[in-house]
């Protein structure tokens, strides 16, 4: 084999290696995602909830029927949740009329503390004070956890862990 033949094969080998590595990364991502969401409710009806927001208004999931809804579970002590604040603000600011974002804070024992946290971090999206029965009904055991609810009230997908504004917006759009 001549030197020119070897030079032609190098880019092909490199390209194949990139494809194999890319497929392995996608497979690994899928496996980790599947493991993280194994305890979450399967696709089916999203559990309804009735929770209070920071202004004292009652909010239910049923009243959002007809919209694609991102239900985001978080905690003030969660570093990853803090890192997602700007992404959630961006998603909230770009919601279409047929979309909604509701967040449920798990550590809601002190509403004044949560309100201070919301003000300090300039959170612009709705924050509901969570309850243990709601966390249990959704199978939430890690933060942040996101549920993407279709307009008919069924869970279209769920994620656990850090998400980008792009992935949150894309999944919300896919829930339509």
Short description:
Helix content is 43%, strand content 20%.
Present the secondary structure layout:
Elements: H1 3-36, E1 50-53, E2 58-60, E3 68-74, H2 79-83, H3 85-93, E4 99-105, H4 111-120, E5 127-129, H5 132-138, E6 145-149, E7 155-160, H6 165-174
Parallel strand pairs: 3-4, 4-5
Antiparallel strand pairs: 1-2, 1-5, 3-6, 6-7
Helix pairs in contact: 3-6
Arrangement of strands in the largest sheet: 2-1-5-4-3-6-7
In N-to-C order, the SSE pattern is HEEEHHEHEHEEH
What is the H level of CATH, i.e. the homologous superfamily of the largest domain? Glutaredoxin
> What's the main sheet like?
7 strands, mixed
Report the structural category: alpha/beta
Estimated radius of gyration: 20 Å
- Poorly predicted ranges: none
End-to-end separation in angstroms reads 56 Å
Q: Report the portion of residues in β strands.
A: 15-25%
CATH topology of the largest domain: Glutaredoxin
Number of domains: 2
Shape: globular
CATH class of the largest domain: Alpha Beta
Number of strands: 7
Output mean pLDDT. Answer: 87
Kindly state the percentage of residues in helix. 40-55%
What is the level-2 CATH architecture name of the largest domain? 3-Layer(aba) Sandwich
Description:
This protein has a 7-stranded mixed beta sheet, covered by helices on one side. The mean pLDDT is 87. The chain contains 6 helices and 7 strands. The protein has 2 domains: 36 residues; 125 residues, Glutaredoxin, CATH 3.40.30.10. 43% of the residues lie in helices and 20% in strands. With 176 residues, the chain is α/β, with parallel strands linked by helices.
